[in-house]
Design a protein that fits this description.
The protein has 26 helices and 20 strands. It is elongated. By secondary structure, it is α/β, with parallel strands linked by helices. It folds into three domains: about 1-245, no CATH class; about 265-415, 2-Layer Sandwich (Alpha-Beta Plaits); about 440-675, TIM Barrel (Alpha-Beta Barrel), CATH 3.20.20. The strands form five sheets. The chain has an eight-stranded mixed barrel. Helix content is about 60%, strand content about 15%. Helix 2 (about 15-40) packs parallel to helix 8 (about 205-255) and helix 10 (about 295-300) packs antiparallel against helix 11. This is EAL domain-containing protein.
Length: about 675
């Protein structure tokens, strides 16, 4: 040990030795940072980082060795052979590069130790190849004990470096790995140099000493440039990665269309405000917002217009936000607002600002609309004890506001919980309603508009609850879909309807709606076939109605099932036509037997010019494709006259007959045409 220290103190120039140590320490830190980066990457990117690792580690070891060799003072002229010097550099780059690849491979278990040992061995090989290139004008003697010790030190400290870097997870592991790597290079060099004894034949001149310093500075400078390049690559990548991470975090926490906070960020802010409210004397108002005519804008003017409306509404609501206020978008046409307040007047002022922003005219370029919105307000801590309950109560208040034609701003009331409990009870009871025969069928007549003759009947499901009485389909159908019982319920409807129609003395076509879940079920075709066989109803008398939404869910699968159903001989009608996002594309994708025009276009047919134009276009489309069109929701003679004038084929609605059980319509008698 004393021999090594004596070699450093008396046989090396202090300044050049310091430069070599600095290069080694800085290079080790840069190299191992790059190794960590490579270990986290995959594929070609990983190999790219390993290339930089090889350049950095090889340059670190070689430059340290070269500058330290120049620091060595044998007191005799020295010549470096170029070919062996270049070979030593190549060995340092390739050998350490391979070692670090093994170190980060993760297999086998001792890969970090093995890889580190390979790095140390490569550095030792580089050192002694470099020594072969070191030709001194004197006699050279080697102490083999120090020679072997230097190799052992390089391999040992290299292994420790790999172990610290890849296996240890405590905060100082990286710094220990850097020190171990530095020790591998430094201990190798100085122990190896202690093994060397030079007896000069000629003594070094002053000019040669100056040249040595110039050469050392040049090598050190080039080495630092190489390491600086690797470091710059690392820093640039880290900056890009950080920038991408910030962008991803922004995307994850903001709505992509409007730039407003999304549900995740909004709820986080709401949770923080709740904590502040618990520790202070203010309250929190949560306002659920749902645009009233957004779907209409989408249907009439297209999605671009709908997006423009959302952006304009968002900008208006956020234009004059004050401290303690926040607007977020939860999705679709649903927004939320947050307001911390002490004075009720502050809350009323905020709600008024929102209402004005939501009610003013919006220019969409091709149209000017007044959207309007339904606002549901719940207050913490008055209406809820936690964030989830506050969100739920604001949601309930918002849906109550949507149902109110006159007052579109609704504050939460405890009675709304009763409605929610009623819905939950229905969700539970719907599972047993089939077995307990609580469901029954009504039939609504469909007539030819040309001669008034009956073209068929639509089958409508009804539920007579033993406690709640008649439950509206608009309430229990969504519940059945959410609970998953809609498939069994749909099969019951189909079987009961076919059995009823097969018993009629006069053959009449029946139209049965197929839910999206039924259409996605692989056994639907077999179910229809079996029911037709069981009931004896001819396939030509069964018409299955499907909505655009049911098809769009999984278009390829849905169309395949529809083709198989059509092959059975049943008719396929597209229901609620015109309300979906891709009506024409859906119509083009399958040879439907009938188009059912949605009632929303018929309701204001005699008052809304745009609705009339839309109906005219659909009727013209049906005529050109030779597909009959049935208009739903006909309630007035004026609507009937307009539809007849425009060339509609069939109609259905209260004007022609209300839904009723078959027995009430006389369908079990031959005189049903007159009774209906």
């Amino acid at each position: 040990m004393m021999t090594v220290l004596n070699c450093i103190a008396t046989q090396h120039d202090a300044w050049l030795t310091t430069l070599a140590a600095l290069i080694c320490l800085v290079g080790s830190a840069i190299t191992l940072n790059l190794v960590r980066k490579a270990a986290r990457c995959h594929g070609f990117v990983r190999y790219g980082w390993h290339f930089l690792v090889a350049i950095a580690s090889g340059s670190t070891a070689w430059c340290t060795h070269f500058v330290a060799m120049l620091a060595y003072e044998p007191s005799a002229p020295v010549v470096l052979l170029p070919d062996l010097t270049i070979l030593s550099l190549a060995i340092a780059v390739v050998g350490t590069g391979i070692g670090f690849v093994v170190m980060t491979g993760g297999f086998p278990r001792f890969a970090p130790v093995i890889g580190g040992a390979m790095v140390g061995a490569s550095i030792a090989t580089m050192h002694y190849i470099g020594m072969l290139a070191y030709r001194v004008d004197g006699l050279i003697e080697w102490n083999m004990d120090y020679f072997y010790a230097s190799i052992v030190f390089a391999v040992l400290f290299g292994s420790l470096s790999g172990q610290f870097l890849m296996r240890c997870r405590y905060p100082t592991s990286y710094r220990l790995a850097v020190l171990a790597f530095t020790a591998a290079v430094v201990s190798l060099h100085f122990t190896g140099m202690a093994a060397l004894t030079v007896t000069p034949m000629n003594y070094l001149q002053e000019a040669e000493l100056a040249d040595k310093f110039t050469l050392a500075a040049s090598v050190g400078g080039v080495g630092l440039i190489v390491l600086g390049t690797a470091l710059a690559s690392y820093l640039i990548d880290s900056h890009v990665q950080s920038s991408n991470l910030r962008q991803l975090q922004h995307i994850a926490r903001h709505d992509s269309l409007t730039g407003l906070p999304n549900r995740t960020q909004f709820v986080e802010r709401l949770s923080r405000e709740k904590v502040n409210a618990d520790n202070g004397d203010h309250r929190i108002a949560l306002i659920g917002i749902d645009l009233d005519r957004f779907k209409e804008v989408n249907d009439l003017y297209g999605h671009a217009a709908g997006d423009r409306l959302l952006c304009e509404i968002s900008a208006r609501m956020t234009e004059h936000l004050e401290s303690g206020e926040l607007i977020g978008r939860f999705g679709g046409d649903e927004f939320a607002a947050l307001k911390t307040f002490q004075d009720e007047d502050d809350l009323r002022s905020f709600v008024s600002r929102l209402n004005i922003a939501l009610s003013d005219l919006v220019d969409l370029g091709n149209a000017v609309v007044r959207p309007g919105a339904s606002l549901g307000i719940a207050i913490y801590p008055t209406d809820a004890e936690d964030v989830e309950k506050l969100l739920s109560n604001a949601d309930m208040a918002m849906y109550r506001a949507k149902q109110n034609i006159e007052n579109k701003i609704c504050y939460y009331e405890s009675s709304m919980d009763e409605a929610a409990r009623k819905r939950a009870a229905l969700a539970r009871d719907v599972w047993t309603a089939i077995d307990e025969n609580q469901f029954f069928l009504n039939f609504q007549v469909q007539r030819s508009i040309k001669d008034g003759g009956i073209s068929g009947y639509e089958v409508l499901l009804r539920w007579r609850h033993p406690v709640q009485g008649l439950v509206p389909p608009t309430l229990f159908i969504p519940i059945a879909e959410e609970s998953g019982v809609i498939t069994q319920l749909g099969e019951w409807v189909l079987r009961a309807a076919c059995k009823e129609a097969a018993s009629w003395p006069v053959s009449r076509r029946i139209a049965v709606n197929i839910s999206p879940l039924q259409l996605s079920h692989t056994g639907l075709v077999d179910t229809v076939q079996n029911i037709l066989n069981e009931t004896g109803l001819p396939a030509k008398l069964l018409e299955l109605e499907v909505t655009e939404g049911a098809i769009i869910r999984d278009k390829a699968r849905a169309l395949h099932i529809l083709r198989e159903l059509k092959a059975l001989g049943v008719s396929i009608a597209i229901d609620d036509f015109g309300t979906g996002y891709s009506s024409l594309a859906t119509l083009r994708s399958f040879p439907f037997d009938k188009i059912k025009l949605d009632r929303s276009f018929v309701t204001d047919l005699d008052q809304n010019v745009q609705s009339k134009a839309f109906v005219r276009a659909i009727l013209a489309l049906g005529q050109s494709l030779d597909i009959p069109v049935l208009a739903e929701g006909v309630e007035t003679q004026t609507q009937m006259d307009i539809l007849q004038e425009e060339g509609c084929n069939q109609v259905q609605g209260f004007l022609l007959g209300r839904p009723a059980p078959a027995i009430h319509l006389g369908l079990d008698k031959k005189g049903e045409a007159q009774a209906a």
